Amino acid sequence: HFAGARLAVSVLLREGHRRIAFLSPPVDGTTSLEERLEGYRQALSDAMLPLDARLVVKGDRQEKLAQFFRENGDVTAVFAAVSGMGLRAMDALDEADLRVPGDVSLIIFDTYDHASYFRVPPTCIVQQEKEIGREAAKLLFSVMRDPNRERRKIVLPPRLAAGRSVAPPRPGRREG
Known about the structure:
The chain has helices at 2-14, 31-46, 62-71, 83-95, 129-145, and strands at residues 20-24, 56-58, 77-80, 105-109, 123-126, 159-161. The chain is of the alpha/beta class and 176 residues long.
């Protein structure tokens, strides 16, 4: 989760974006979302950019997102931490008369299988879900065979699935 978010935001930074919003359902108590937020923060820190708390939106109401985009015209990119937020972000951007990727670029965590629901094929961070499941099953069975077995953590790297929702910031679009 951390590495995937860091990758997403790093891609947006390499494209030239500096005002990148983080959109997520409420984060507190959900480890995967907390790690994605931390990956967002780390990518900004790696680029020596300060974290602007106003660009971290936790909540999934469509009206709130549209208002956010109207009030934050300097946002040129969005990292949506879950697919539902990506869908709502795209609709909210439409409501705010902003287009993906012409006005605002968008990367979504873990929604590649749902890409057909988007008007613009999204760029996504994809987890190796089947491989994660296989490795988890192996670990479970090894612990069942030997309950005293040393516990280990396996981290599989995410990958970027390029869609058509990312472009450099449009000239003339103001950045804060």
